[in-house]
Amino acid sequence: MAFALALAMPTFAQKNKAENSATGSSAKIQLTKEQKAAQKEMAQKTANHPWRGKKVAYFGDSITDPNIKASKVKYWGFLQEWLGITPYVYGVSGRMWNDIPRQANKLKAEHGDDFDAILIFIGTNDYGNSTPIGEWYSETFDTVRVARNKQPSQVVNRRHRHFVMDKNTLKGRINIAMSKLKQMYPTKQIVIMTPVHRAFFSLGDTNVQPDEMYENARGLYLDDYIQAIKEASNVWAVPVIDLNSLSGLFPIYDAGAQMFNKMDTDRLHPNDAGHARMAKTIMYQLSALPCDF
């Protein structure tokens, strides 16, 4: 079942109030001038945000999955708190781009057309599992009728592109997913987000993933997958939020690992601070995009 959590998640103010009650403290929290200014800026920024109060479906992997405990609040939870977005969450740990059609089918079964937009945040496992990049198109040489400059039409030979629908390559998987979504939801806003930087992850001896400075078994780097996902923006006429660059998350160095789950074993999954940073980046980027049409 998707998570529609609009009333379930307490705000930070509610959490602070609950903590004060639990400790018997009735003192009011005194905010600094900088904190008050930050609150005022956030209130002004979100008051007329085009995504305020909307219903948004989230497709993705472990970073979106509500069952992953690396963070107590996910990026979509912060967006819910700040913008009042109702989240329908379908991300599942370990999934790749070939799972997006399944997530789309589940959204359709549970909510039909009663939502406003879809955010897709997936791709790091395509790199981790060494999925080939592939091609967007194949080409044939076909005949087609054309007419120009008020001359009679004629049949000519021209190159003809076709989408590659290959479930075994990244670009083929994106083509399959976006072809389905563009036909299933032709009027909905669909936004793709690139995977964030990643470093060492280990979940026991049977799941050890080196950092992104190593090539995968296909001889490809994470950058190659990021580039392909960004290209999807023009191929499929969808906005792409480049979280890989814009979020600032960089766990390669110890200094940046503070925004990830565990310094020694999990620099793949952001913690609360990492998710808050992603969420703020997403919120500002979405302010320039319509949620519905």
What does this structure look like?
The protein has 293 residues and is of the alpha/beta class. The chain has one domain (12-18, 31-133, 167-286): SGNH hydrolase (Rossmann fold). Helices cover 35% and strands 18% of the residues. It has helices at 12-23, 33-47, 75-83, 100-111, 124-128, 170-184, 222-236, 243-246, 272-286; strands spanning 55-60, 86-89, 117-121, 137-146, 154-163, 189-193, 201-202, 208-209, 240-241, 260-262, 266-270. Strands 2-1-3-6-9 form a five-stranded parallel beta sheet, with helices on both faces. It has a two-stranded antiparallel sheet with strand order 4-5. The protein has a two-stranded antiparallel ribbon with strand order 7-8. A hairpin with a 5-residue loop joins strand 7 and strand 8 (208-209). The protein is globular, with a radius of gyration of 22 Å. Mean pLDDT is 91; it is low at 1-28.
Order of helices and strands: HHEHEHEHEEHEEEHEHEEH
Q: What top-tier CATH class fits best? A: Alpha Beta
Q: Tally the helices: what do you get? A: 9
**Spatial order of the strands in the main sheet?**
2-1-3-6-9
CATH topology: Rossmann fold
What is the first-to-last residue Cα distance?
Answer: 27 Å
Strand content: 15-25%
Full CATH superfamily name: SGNH hydrolase
Name the structural class: alpha/beta
Uncertain residue segments: 1-28
- The overall pLDDT, averaged over residues, is 91
Second CATH tier, the architecture: 3-Layer(aba) Sandwich
